[in-house]
Amino acid sequence: MSACQILEDEEIRLRAVEPADADLLYLWENDTHLWQYGSTVTPFSRHILQEYVRNAQADIYEAKQLRLMIVQKSNGKTVGSIDLYDFDPRNRRAGIGVLVVEESRNQHIATRSLQLLVTYCRDILLLHQLYADVQASNAISLQLFANVGFVHAGVKKDWLQTASGYEDVVLLQKIL
């Protein structure tokens, strides 16, 4: 099975970042409500994101990361992205994160995307494991990863500073 076949199912397709995605990424990366789920605490300029898109075609072995856009096949709409980060080819592992826009949630898009990317990581990249760091209060994301076979591997105590104090982060792991 080719990488293209692995990166789609009957409802969604994962595709490379295209130049036309710069405006969409600008909206997502600068949405301050989403910053709590990642490591971003400052806005990105359009110029920086346009440069990112231009360089997004770099090989994962060079860039140590990969972002794929999530597209609904029924309407061709880009509804999110899924990322591999901290790619470590020596130890054959990577971190994984997923974003689905609010109006497209509760349609199993994140689950389908995660399943497709896990298959790609196992069968094409030949990774041994994937991991995710999820805020302890993010029950929906914890359930998402559990549904795809990720297991609780530990807790990073008081890991993230939030407006209401410090919050734990759950380390989830999947051996492929």
Keywords:
176 residues; Aminopeptidase; 7 strands; globular; alpha+beta; 28% helix; seven-stranded mixed β-sheet; 6 helices; 35% strand
What does this structure look like?
Helix 2 (22-29) crosses helix 3. This protein is 28% helix and 35% strand. The model has no long low-confidence stretch (mean pLDDT 87). It has a seven-stranded mixed β-sheet with strand order 1-2-3-4-5-7-6. The chain has one domain (3-175): Aminopeptidase. It has six helices and seven strands, in the order H-E-H-H-H-E-E-E-H-E-H-E-E.
* Low-confidence regions: none
Shape-level CATH architecture: 3-Layer(aba) Sandwich
How much of the residues is beta strand, in percent?
25-35%
Helix vs. strand class: alpha+beta
In the residues, how many domains can be counted? 1
Bin the helical content: 25-40%
Strand order of the largest sheet: 1-2-3-4-5-7-6
> Roughly how many Å apart are the termini?
18 Å
- Name the overall outline: globular
CATH topology tier name: Aminopeptidase
Compute the number of strand runs.
7
- SSE order: HEHHHEEEHEHEE
> CATH superfamily, please?
Gcn5-related N-acetyltransferase (GNAT)
Task: Kindly provide the radius of gyration, computed on alpha-carbon positions and rounded to a whole number of angstroms.
Answer: 16 Å
Summarize it.
28% of the residues lie in helices and 35% in strands. The protein has 176 residues and is of the alpha+beta class.
Task: Please specify the SSE layout and strand pairing.
Elements: H1 3-6, E1 12-16, H2 22-29, H3 46-55, H4 60-63, E2 66-72, E3 78-88, E4 93-100, H5 109-123, E5 129-135, H6 139-147, E6 151-162, E7 165-175
Parallel strand pairs: 4-5
Antiparallel strand pairs: 1-2, 2-3, 3-4, 5-7, 6-7
Helix pairs in contact: 2-3
